[in-house]
Specification:
With about 850 residues, the chain is an alpha+beta fold. The protein folds into 4 domains: about 5-215, 2-Layer Sandwich (Beta-Lactamase); about 310-405, PAS domain (Beta-Lactamase, 2-Layer Sandwich); about 430-585, Alpha-Beta Plaits (2-Layer Sandwich); about 585-830, TIM Barrel (Alpha-Beta Barrel), CATH 3.20.20.450. About 45% of the residues lie in helices and about 25% in strands. It has 25 helices and 31 strands. The protein is flat and about 175 Å long. It comes from Shewanella jiangmenensis. This is EAL domain-containing protein. InterPro entries: Biofilm_reg_signaling, EAL_dom, EAL_sf, GGDEF_dom, Nucleotide_cyclase, PAS, PAS-like_dom_sf, Rev_trsase/Diguanyl_cyclase.
């Protein structure tokens, strides 16, 4: 249905019925409101009539009090004298007075002939002292009042005047009001409404209210000519509106739809729409032109992209016939071969109907595969083309020539997996193959070979000759092993070999043979002959075999042990060797130390250094480092200190210990006068850049006195880093720090170094102290060290003092301080509370 007919249907089918329904509904609403207003008015009027009647009763009661009391007090002659004047007033007001005394009713005034029914009189006099109520006497409404005055009662009767009851209601609303006797409990009797009123004789009375006729309340209006004229005017307005809409909207839209129907989606030129009419139609045409322009621009961009990319792109229909191909496709497949409408499966050598099967399948929206075309390796990508309803319309085939790319990948893979000098697998490849090897043999051996004297060749002959030597070594090793064995260059002058299914004896014999073969390899350069040796570490295991990567780590540790034994040595890894286990676990301990420093898990212990001279008040103690595991167990220092030194973590460890010790000392100023803390400095920390600045910054930050801190350095460290140690010692001594040489006598130092190093204490190595009480040589060495130090003004400390006999010998020599289990065992620094006492052993 056209839009013009839709507007007509809208007007006739919706607008006109809506107007009639609104008119009819307003009439019903008005009638309902009028009825509700009439009921509300009647209810309010009945309430008002009841209130007016109550006020009338109250007025009569008040008048009765005013007139009754004087009449009752006058004697009979006085009352007769008042009859004339009294009669005029009371008759005009409709009042009749009676007196009841001693069972007799007397009429007062000239209306003495009036009577009241006996039953009514009985009800009046037997009631309360004061009562008012209505009564019907011979059909005439009366209002009666009874008042007790002394022993007598005064009864007052008033007849309602004609029209008096109607005046209780509102004029124009109430038709008439009558006093009637009730015969039922309903609030209405026909068209009349009932208002109950009290009576004195027990009868049920009510005011019967009749309102004016219902016509006076009819507020509805009936259709007239004016209403019909309004309706006709509305129809005329609707007709004019339809004509206006038809000309300004329907006709322009029809023209616009005609232009849209003639648009060619495959046109090579852009033709905009031309429309006029209302602003909405113009805006619709502008939006349509923008959309058409964007579609055209997008189509041009797609064409430019397809023609500009390097990949070959072909569009096919659902049966696999070529609809479009870009220039790279023509160059790749041959322009003289590729034609529109050609079956692409036949052209590329694919299975017949492969594209149709792909389009009709419910699998992945894209399909990739590689195939060979002539001398090229091509990678194809198939994608579905769907319309707006999701129906398959064809396929997009993208072809990429990956011949050069695959060659480059193969070359890069070879370079990544092989050593460029020897052609052997490199370390990463060797370790990866160790993880992938499926070991079915009863034994496995991983050998770690480290060439010796190879650096001499590089330094003397150059790296080119060194590379030639590596090639000779690789060729020699390859000739000495079997084809199924694995050989790799691990880096530098290191090689690795994996042997499977050999006994330990066979592995050892093979390694000896390889050492002999390598010793025969001679490199001649400028008249000189160069040879290399090899240290070999072997990790051997039988079933059940551990992971081969773990064996590789053990072989590396074993090679380190072989080099320690001397030149051209072979060492088999033994997991019971504590020193090798330390080497193997060194990386793990290094990580544990780094975590402990970061998480502040380091704990400080102390061991007292007791003064052997009673007159010496100075209490010294050495600060020791511990790490507590999660189960509460303390790690031995030997397990992590060596790892920290190997991996250069000791500067961080020393900084953490210095910071914690200074904070502890700064919090206890009562110890400053007679205590001194000895803190060890490792060789890696001595003279390292920033260490001196860190110590001074911590001293300033914590506020600890420098006179209470002594740094201990080992004799070997002081000698190896003599100049750095000397500079650092002199600088820190100016700040008030003291220094001590630890383990003195165990190294290669001479007494001359004591003259150069500005130290305050010398700690004699425990190897001379343990047998001091029974070994005269140790006694002489310790005494000589003390005598030299005494002459130089240096105090001595004996380590590893473990018995009372040693203490006595030390006192005999004159040693200044003693340290060991006989003096005190290491304890947590947090538990230190004062100067410990010297332990005396029995």
């Amino acid at each position: 249905m056209h839009i013009g007919k839709k507007f007509l249907v809208f007007i006739v089918g919706f607008c006109l019925p809506a107007m009639l329904l609104v008119y009819w509904g307003m009439g019903l609403w008005f009638e309902q409101k009028a009825a509700v207003m009439r009921e509300q008015t009647i209810s309010q009027e009945l309430v008002s009539i009841g209130e007016q009647y109550d006020r009338t009763v109250k007025r009569q009661l008040l008048l009765s009090h005013i007139y009754a009391s004087p009449l009752n007090l006058l004697d009979e002659q006085s009352r007769d004298a008042m009859d004339s004047a009294w009669h005029e007033r009371t008759h005009a007001m409709g009042l009749h007075f009676f007196r009841y005394l001693n069972g007799t009713l007397y009429a007062l005034g000239e209306n003495a002939d009036s009577e009241l029914p006996p039953d009514l009189v009985h009800a009046l006099v037997s009631g309360p002292d004061e009562a008012t109520g209505a009564a019907l006497l011979d059909g005439v409404p009366h209002l009666l009042t009874s008042i007790r005055i002394g022993d007598a009662r005064v009864l007052v009767s008033r007849t309602f005047a004609e029209g008096e009851l109607e005046r209780l209601g509102q004029s124009g609303v109430v038709d008439h009001i009558r006093l009637v006797q009730l015969r039922h409990d309903r609030a209405a009797d026909g068209d009349a409404y009932l208002v109950p009123v009290p009576s004195l004789d027990g009868s049920r009375l009510a005011l019967q209210v009749t309102f004016v006729s219902a016509g006076a309340w009819n507020l509805t209006a009936s259709p007239d000519l004016v209403v019909m004229a309004v309706l006709l005017l509305g129809l005329l307005v609707l007709a004019l509106g339809y004509l206006w809409i038809s000309r300004s909207l329907v006709a322009p839209l029809r023209t616009l739809m005609t232009q849209l129907g003639h648009i060619d989606p495959n046109a090579s030129e852009y033709h905009p729409l031309n429309a006029d009419g209302c602003p909405e139609v113009l805006q619709f045409s502008q939006v349509s032109n923008q959309l058409l322009a964007e579609i055209f621009a997008q189509k041009e961009r797609a064409r430019a992209i397809l023609e500009g990319i390097a990949d070959a792109v072909l569009l096919t229909d659902i049966e696999g016939r070529v609809l479009y191909f870009n220039p790279p496709a023509a160059r790749l497949l041959g322009g003289e071969i590729l034609r529109h409408g050609q079956q692409i499966e036949r052209l590329l050598g694919w299975d017949t109907n492969s594209i149709t099967d792909f389009l009709l399948s419910s699998g992945k929206p894209r399909k990739n595969h590689c195939f060979r075309y002539q001398n090229h390796l091509l990678q194809s990508t198939l994608s579905r083309i769907e319309d707006h309803q999701g129906q398959q319309q064809g396929a997009l085939v993208a072809l990429r020539n990956i011949t050069a790319e695959e060659r480059l990948k193969a070359e890069l893979r070879r370079q990544a997996e092989e050593d460029p000098i020897t052609g052997l697998p490199n370390r990463a490849t060797f370790e990866a193959r160790l993880d992938k090897v499926s070991v079915k043999d009863s034994s496995a051996a991983v050998c770690y070979l480290d060439l010796e004297q190879f650096k001499i060749i590089n330094d003397s002959c150059g790296h080119l000759e060194g590379d030639r030597m590596l090639q000779m070594v690789a060729h020699c090793l390859q000739g000495g092993i079997q084809s199924h064995d694995m050989l790799a260059r691990l880096g530098g002058d290191e090689f690795g070999i994996l042997l499977l299914g050999r006994s330990a004896h066979e592995v050892a014999r093979l390694m000896k043979e390889l050492q002999r073969q390598l010793s025969l390899q001679v490199l001649e350069y400028q008249g000189q002959c160069y040879r290399v040796g090899v240290s070999i570490g072997v990790a051997f295991a039988r079933t059940p075999l551990p992971p081969l990567r773990e064996l590789f780590k053990d072989a590396d540790i074993a090679c380190i042990a072989a080099k320690r034994k001397g030149s051209n040595q072979i060492h088999f890894y033994d997991d019971k060797d504590k020193e090798l286990n330390y080497e193997r676990n060194a990386p793990k301990w290094a990580m544990r130390i780094a975590r402990a420093i970061h998480s502040r898990e380091l704990e400080l212990y102390f061991q007292p250094i007791h003064a052997l001279e009673a007159a010496n008040p100075r209490q010294r103690m050495e600060i020791l480092l511990r790490i507590r595991e999660s189960d509460g167990r303390m790690l031995p220092p030997a397990q992590f200190i060596a790892s920290a030194e190997r991996f250069k973590l000791m500067p961080d460890v020393d900084k953490a210990v210095i910071s914690m010790a200074m904070q502890w000392l700064a919090a206890r100023p009562e110890l400053w006068r007679d205590h001194c803390l000895s803190i060890n400095l490792s060789g890696n920390s001595l003279g390292v850049e920033g260490m001196e600045t860190f110590i001074l910054d911590e001293l300033k930050r914590t506020g600890a006195p420098s006179s209470c801190i002594c740094f201990e350095i080992t004799e070997t460290t002081a000698i190896q880093n003599r100049q750095r140690a000397l500079d650092m010692l002199k600088s820190l001594r100016k700040q008030g720090f003291a220094f001590a040489i630890d383990d003195f006598g165990s190294g290669f130092a001479s007494y001359g170094y004591l003259r150069e190093l500005p130290v305050d204490y010398v700690k004699i190595d425990g190897c001379f102290v343990r047998q001091l009480a029974s070994n005269a040589k140790d006694y002489a060495i310790v005494k000589s060290i003390h005598d030299v130090c005494a002459v130089m003004g240096i105090e001595t400390v004996a380590e590893f003092v473990e018995s009372q006999d040693i203490i006595e010998k030390l006192e005999e020599i004159g040693i200044n301080y003693a340290q060991g289990y006989a003096v005190g065992r290491p304890k947590p620094l947090a538990d230190y509370h004062g100067r410990p006492k010297l332990a005396r052993l029995a």
